[in-house]
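A protein record in our archive is deliberately plain, so that people and models can read it alike. The tokens are whole numbers drawn from a learned vocabulary of local backbone shapes. For reference, a complete record is included directly beneath this paragraph.
>
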Amino acid sequence: MIGVAQLSKDKEAEVDSLQQVIKKAMHDTTILNAWIAWEKIVFQTDPKYFFQLNKKIDSLCSLNLKKELNQKEKVSVLKSYGFAWNAFGVLNERKSNFEKANECYAKSILIYKELNDKNQIAACLNNKGNSHWGSGDNDNALKCYSESLEIREEIGNKNGISASLNNIGNVFFE
């Protein structure tokens, strides 16, 4: 089965279930949610299929955003779209393609800004900071981490605050 290369039996069963949801789906948002759930399962075990799933998410979102959607559908599609672009950033960062990773994170941030989803904006800024740090660009890493920290403090995300402060500390430690 595609996308279950190194999965436990439980995870294989989850993927089978998601495939059934996709086959029976009456709405694209259901398909997007199932692909995202599947993507989260294969994130660590199958990078190639992780990429393929995110390409599917991106394509279906792009197609839907050309349609007239009600507000609830538009928000759901945009969340999936932002999710996919953040994932493309992660993939490019893992390949040490930091410039492309930062472009992907920037696109994800723009999508989440349209949704005013501060938690996801902060998470993407943190990822972008990681990419800058990985490339040795400590000044931009600190800028991203600090911006992420500011948002996380504003929304009271204590775990996020801790992560941002830890990342800032790591840059200074280095």
Summary: DSSP finds eight helices and no strands in the chain. The radius of gyration is 17 Å. The longest helix spans residues 71-94.
